[in-house]
């Protein structure tokens, strides 16, 4: 059960008083409201600017922060400070997207704050706010428009609109066509002809603008010995995307060739138009031209996996994919190769930007062979030279191993007693056999069963020039036979496997017969050097040799058309080539909030990946580095693995995570927390840098910007020490006073506050009506007091109005602001200096009234500005001269230091912790000239607050105190109201209800603005917000008049009405409607 509710209090909760008002209205009794203005409405003012001066142009992907300033006021001549529920600001971004809601946006309201589905707009419900409040919102936005576009935010609330200045964006344009790693699908047509395909995939970079709608690719001459016919374009529908363990191509068909559905994460769009043609050179070679158009750059259907389910590169997104179908005539018992050795790409242009196609993935080869009795090749290859690896990849240690094998098929008889064997020779320029990560063994080719006995292994570590890369022109791995240089061989495995240049295995045929082995395979596993050459000038060759009864041999069918380097011009069925390709790195550092709050950890994510359109599998090594700015430090234990930490010359922490294995084309992330460290200047932008490093690859870098929160609010309020002024018994002067309070809940220290108070003038639009005259005294402990005697119509209450000089400065004013007080003061201005975060300042205005009469009303108005929240805050208050019978009710809350808070304005609400006790004090004062009787005071929440007074003499008062307890369910801003009735000479006296507010914060909460405050601007409980406006609306005062009572009214009601001629209510802080 809740102790409190912050529902708006209902006026006049005592039934008899409600009935009295109802009867008065039914009988046509006119409410009294001297010179009452028309019903007022809430008005908003907005301003928008960037939080700091962002560098122009701004790179796409950069987070920048805007400051949206908002003021909430009453548009009446005498503005009130009522609470306004659901202050909803909508903010839209042009060429930007929101990733988070501003810190001040409430999600616990009936109308919650939210982001749009496309993240281009947000709705921010500030919850309940009190009129007379100016707020600053920090709004982070990520720039993501095309090159030279403009980033702009537009904020709207009510009828107010504000727009930030434009920021020019720059965007990187990248586009690439990949041909590598084609499908191995082929279809036998008539025993000599085969139907096959080459895949192509067009991609653009993440965040890249759209490229050209039409593109033409020229494929240079293929080998004259292998012609293609019947070329055609088609969507790709092959389930196999090339090597099963490598990154291939996605699918553009909705159904695979075998009829099964294509998963959405493997499907990319096809193009609207595709054509392919072939022409012959004078030498009889073929030149193929592919043209595609109608490319869908919308990226509504973006695949993340290839046709075979292998991850695609994360640094780009496929916008189109398809195949070029062709037919090849092998001829009886022949072999041949069809290759696209180097596809010529067009120039990519987009809005003045240009991009260059990546060269390494612009080739592809398909080889068609009829196998002989033995062959050697890289694992998963068909001797086509299509194997591609990256520096540092260690195959055997991980799932996808790079193996080469020498495979010999032989009849088991009559050679059963002969010695057989296989030998693998390695081109060691860019790869090495690797220690414990290399497993050498013989296996059954059919069942892959290891053969552990009857095998003699030998390892060549000699200095033969043919296997020494430093020997220059003499280097020739194909020319080395595995019986050469006997002294260089050893049957003992070396300690340093990088010295091994060849591995051989010898066995007797009879042993294989006993094991039932029909074929044998020798696997040797290698690692590409971390500093391997990746420019295409060198790769890695392997050479397989076979030992038969006829001796060692390394012959095989020549395969002339395959990718190769300068070492050899052709491959063969016993010698295969592996190309080395550099991977690309990505890095994207992000934060869980674009805003830093002192004392609150900031979540940081450093996402990284190694990418290739040709590669898959795992890579070994690399590092991710994060550099934190001064003001942020790594929170120990917040990451899954601890980084090494270094401090640079500027005092910044550099965090380093060494990578063991990284799956290519897979985004990984390192999550950790950073702790804000004082001092932090609100509004300051801090930048977090990160990069991904990998051997042989360019370093990818990124940066995240976070802003030290500068959100907050400033409120203005006015209260009277006595809302009802009692005239002296023997005549003379009456006195009245009110206090103007400015309070900051801004996290930023404000350089000045400036408040103008326009004094009452008889007959003014605010509702003032009085006789006589008054003099003025001002008391202010801070700042400078200025006066003017300009006519009320000449005074503009906004301190920033040119007639007042400027906000915070009277220089250049035209209405005579001066520190010298004139004879007749019409306006007061107080300019004070620094207002600290969470601080409050007050000045008092005292009136001494001569010639006052009962019923006189004095309204005054104050408007203020502060340096950071900047926009206008408005308030007003009224003092009335009491009639004969009148009373004033005061309700207070005791502060922690034992003093009492007249908590009727949001600025004065004290704060307690849930679980603590609250002590209230209610005072009823006779403000009239006659005695009051039968005084009854009722507390709307707590029976302990009720009390009665039999008689209350002129000027006398009665005080009642009581204590209640709070619980965690009471966290938030609480309003509690007391009501009272009395009788004066038989007349019912209507007394305004009086409310007191208090903030209940969470146990363990931090009331400091830098922590997690619960304050009047952000009540945690839903419902009608707190503030003076949560009190009952001002009670209207009936005046004497005659009317004919309805015959249907009961007699008791007539008696009640007859005694209502002198009703008078009092409010200590008026919000004039």
Which geometry do the CA atoms define? elongated
Q: What structural category do the secondary elements indicate?
A: mainly beta
As a whole number of angstroms, the C-alpha radius of gyration is: 43 Å
Q: So how many helices?
A: 3
Strand content: 35-45%
Q: What fraction, in percent, of the residue positions are helical? A: under 10%
Question: How many strand segments?
Answer: 74
- Main sheet: strands, sense, barrel: 8 strands, antiparallel
The CATH topology of the domain at 370-580 turns out to be: Immunoglobulin-like
Structural features, described:
This protein has 1073 residues and is mostly beta strands. Among the domains are: 42-170, Immunoglobulin-like; 174-350, no CATH class; 370-580, Immunoglobulin-like; 584-697, Immunoglobulin-like. Helix content is 3%, strand content 42%. Strands 2, 4, 7, 11, 55, 57, 59 and 62 form an eight-stranded antiparallel beta sheet that branches. A hairpin with a 5-residue loop joins strand 49 (644-647) and strand 50.
Annotate the secondary structure layout:
Layout: H1 15-26, E1 31-32, E2 42-50, E3 58-59, E4 63-74, E5 83-84, E6 88-94, E7 96-97, E8 114-115, E9 121-125, E10 129-130, E11 133-143, E12 150-157, E13 160-163, E14 167-170, E15 175-178, E16 186-188, E17 193-205, E18 214-219, E19 228-234, E20 273-280, E21 286-293, E22 316-329, E23 336-340, E24 348-350, E25 353-355, E26 364-368, E27 374-378, E28 387-389, E29 403-409, E30 419-426, E31 431-433, E32 441-444, E33 450-451, E34 456-460, E35 489-490, E36 502-508, H2 509-515, E37 519-528, E38 539-548, E39 551-553, E40 558-559, E41 571-572, E42 575-580, E43 584-591, E44 595-596, E45 602-611, E46 618-620, E47 623-627, E48 632-634, E49 644-647, E50 653-658, E51 661-663, E52 668-676, E53 685-693, E54 700-708, E55 712-720, E56 724-725, E57 734-744, E58 753-758, E59 773-780, E60 784-788, E61 827-832, E62 840-850, E63 857-866, E64 873-881, E65 887-894, E66 900-901, E67 911-913, E68 917-926, E69 932-939, E70 947-952, E71 957-965, E72 972-984, E73 987-1001, E74 1037-1038, H3 1051-1058
Parallel strand pairs: 3-14, 28-42, 44-54, 56-64, 67-73
Antiparallel strand pairs: 1-74, 2-4, 4-11, 5-10, 6-9, 6-12, 7-11, 8-9, 11-55, 12-13, 12-14, 15-17, 16-17, 17-22, 18-21, 19-22, 20-21, 23-26, 24-25, 27-29, 29-37, 30-36, 30-38, 31-37, 32-33, 32-37, 34-35, 34-36, 38-39, 38-42, 40-41, 43-45, 45-52, 46-51, 47-50, 47-53, 48-52, 49-50, 53-54, 55-57, ...
């Amino acid at each position: 059960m809740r102790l409190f509710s912050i529902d708006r209090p209902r006026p006049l909760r005592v039934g008899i008083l409600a009935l009295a008002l109802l009867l008065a209205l039914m009988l046509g009794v006119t409410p009294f409201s001297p010179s009452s203005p028309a019903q007022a409405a809430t008005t908003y003012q907005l301003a928008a600017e960037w939080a700091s001066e962002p560098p122009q142009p701004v790179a796409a992907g950069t987070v920048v922060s805007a400051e949206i300033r908002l003021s909430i006021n009453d548009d009446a001549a005498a503005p009130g400070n009522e609470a306004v529920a659901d202050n909803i600001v909508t903010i839209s971004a042009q060429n930007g997207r929101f990733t988070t809601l501003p810190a001040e946006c409430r999600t616990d309201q009936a109308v919650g704050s939210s982001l749009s589905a496309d993240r281009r707009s947000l709705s921010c419900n500030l919850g309940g706010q009190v009129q007379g409040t100016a707020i600053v919102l920090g709004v982070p936005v990520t720039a993501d428009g095309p090159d030279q576009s403009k980033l702009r935010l537009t904020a709207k609330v009510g009828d107010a609109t504000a727009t930030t200045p434009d920021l020019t964006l720059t965007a990187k344009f990248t586009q690439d066509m990949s041909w590598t790693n084609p499908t191995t699908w082929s279809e036998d047509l008539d025993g000599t002809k085969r139907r096959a395909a080459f895949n192509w995939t067009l991609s653009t970079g993440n965040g890249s603008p759209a490229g050209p709608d039409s593109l033409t690719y020229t494929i240079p001459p293929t080998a004259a010995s292998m012609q293609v016919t019947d070329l055609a374009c088609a969507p790709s529908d092959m389930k196999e995307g090339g090597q099963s363990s490598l990154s291939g191509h996605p699918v553009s068909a909705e159904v695979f060739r075998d009829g099964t559905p294509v998963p959405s994460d493997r499907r990319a769009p096809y193009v609207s138009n595709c054509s392919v043609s072939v022409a012959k050179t004078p030498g009889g070679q073929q030149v193929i031209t592919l043209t595609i158009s109608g490319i869908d750059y919308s990226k509504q259907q973006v695949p993340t996996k290839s046709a075979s389910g292998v991850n695609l590169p994360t640094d780009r997104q496929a916008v189109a994919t398809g195949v070029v179908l062709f037919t090849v005539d092998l001829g009886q018992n022949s072999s041949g190769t069809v290759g696209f050795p180097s596809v010529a790409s067009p120039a990519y242009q987009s809005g003045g930007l240009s991009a260059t196609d990546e060269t390494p993935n612009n080739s592809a080869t398909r080889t068609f062979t009829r196998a002989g009795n033995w062959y050697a090749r890289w694992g998963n290859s068909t001797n086509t030279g299509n194997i591609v690896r990256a520096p540092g990849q260690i195959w055997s240690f991980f799932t996808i191993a790079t193996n080469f094998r020498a495979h010999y098929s032989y009849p088991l008889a009559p050679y059963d007693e002969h010695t057989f064997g296989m030998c693998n020779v390695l081109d060691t320029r860019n790869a090495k056999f690797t220690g414990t990560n290399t497993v050498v063994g013989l296996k059954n080719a059919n069942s892959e069963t290891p053969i552990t006995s009857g095998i003699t292994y030998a390892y060549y570590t000699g200095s033969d020039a043919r296997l020494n890369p430093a020997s220059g022109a003499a280097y020739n791995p194909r020319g080395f036979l595995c019986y050469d240089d006997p002294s260089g061989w050893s049957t003992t495995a070396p300690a340093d496997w990088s010295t091994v240049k060849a591995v051989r295995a010898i066995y007797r045929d009879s042993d294989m017969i006993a094991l039932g082995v029909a074929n044998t395979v020798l696997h040797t596993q290698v690692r590409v050097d971390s500093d391997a050459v990746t420019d295409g000038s060198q790769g890695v060759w392997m050479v397989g040799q076979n030992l038969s009864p006829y001796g060692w041999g390394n012959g095989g069918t020549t395969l002339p058309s395959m990718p190769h380097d300068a070492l050899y011009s052709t491959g063969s069925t016993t010698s295969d080539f592996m190309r080395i390709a550099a991977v690309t790195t990505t890095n994207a550092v992000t934060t869980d909030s674009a805003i830093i709050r002192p004392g609150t950890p900031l979540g940081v994510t450093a996402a990284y990946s190694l990418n290739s359109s040709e590669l898959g599998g795992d890579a070994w090594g690399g590092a991710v580095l994060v550099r934190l700015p001064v003001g942020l430090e790594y929170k120990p234990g917040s990451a899954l693995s601890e980084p090494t930490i270094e401090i640079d010359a500027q005092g910044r922490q550099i965090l380093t995570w060494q990578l063991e294995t990284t799956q290519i084309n897979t985004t990984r992330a390192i999550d950790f927390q950073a702790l804000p460290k004082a001092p932090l200047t609100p509004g300051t932008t801090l930048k977090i840098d990160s990069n991904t490093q990998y051997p042989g690859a360019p370093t990818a870098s990124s940066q995240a910007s976070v802003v030290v929160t500068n959100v907050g609010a400033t409120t203005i309020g006015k209260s009277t020490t006595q809302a009802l002024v009692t005239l002296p018994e023997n005549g003379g002067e009456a006195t009245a006073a009110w206090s103007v309070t400015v309070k900051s809940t801004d996290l930023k220290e404000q350089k000045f506050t400036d408040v103008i108070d326009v004094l009452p003038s008889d007959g003014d639009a605010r509702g003032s009506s009085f006789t006589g005259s008054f003099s003025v005294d001002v008391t202010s402990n801070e700042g400078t007091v200025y006066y003017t005697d300009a006519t009320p119509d000449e005074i503009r209450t906004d301190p920033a109005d040119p007639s007042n000089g400027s906000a915070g400065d009277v220089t250049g004013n035209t209405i005579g602001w001066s520190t010298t007080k004139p004879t007749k003061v019409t306006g007061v201005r107080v300019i004070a200096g620094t207002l600290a975060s969470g601080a409050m300042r007050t000045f008092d205005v005292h009136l001494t009234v001569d010639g006052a009469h009962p019923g006189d009303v004095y309204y005054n108005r104050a408007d203020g500005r502060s340096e950071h929240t900047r926009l206008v805050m408005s308030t007003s208050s009224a003092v009335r001269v009491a009639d004969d019978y009148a009373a004033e009710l005061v309700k207070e809350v005791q502060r922690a230091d034992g003093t009492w808070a007249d908590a009727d304005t949001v600025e004065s609400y004290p704060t307690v912790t849930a679980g603590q006790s609250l002590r209230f004090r209610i005072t009823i004062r006779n403000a009239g000239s006659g005695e009051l009787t039968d005084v009854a005071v009722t507390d709307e929440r707590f029976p302990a607050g009720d009390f009665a007074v039999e008689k209350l003499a002129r000027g006398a008062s009665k005080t009642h105190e009581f204590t209640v307890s709070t619980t965690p369910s009471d966290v938030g801003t609480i309003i509690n109201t007391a009501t009272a009735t009395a009788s004066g000479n038989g007349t019912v006296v209507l007394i305004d209800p009086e409310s007191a507010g208090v903030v209940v914060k969470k146990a363990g909460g931090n009331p400091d603005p830098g922590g997690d405050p619960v304050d009047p601007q952000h009540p945690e409980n839903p419902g009608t917000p707190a503030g003076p406006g949560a009190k009952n609306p001002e009670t209207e005062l009936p005046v004497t008049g005659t009317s004919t009572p309805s015959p249907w009214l009961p007699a008791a009601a007539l008696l009640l009405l007859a005694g209502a001629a002198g009703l008078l209510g009092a409010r200590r802080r008026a919000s004039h409607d």
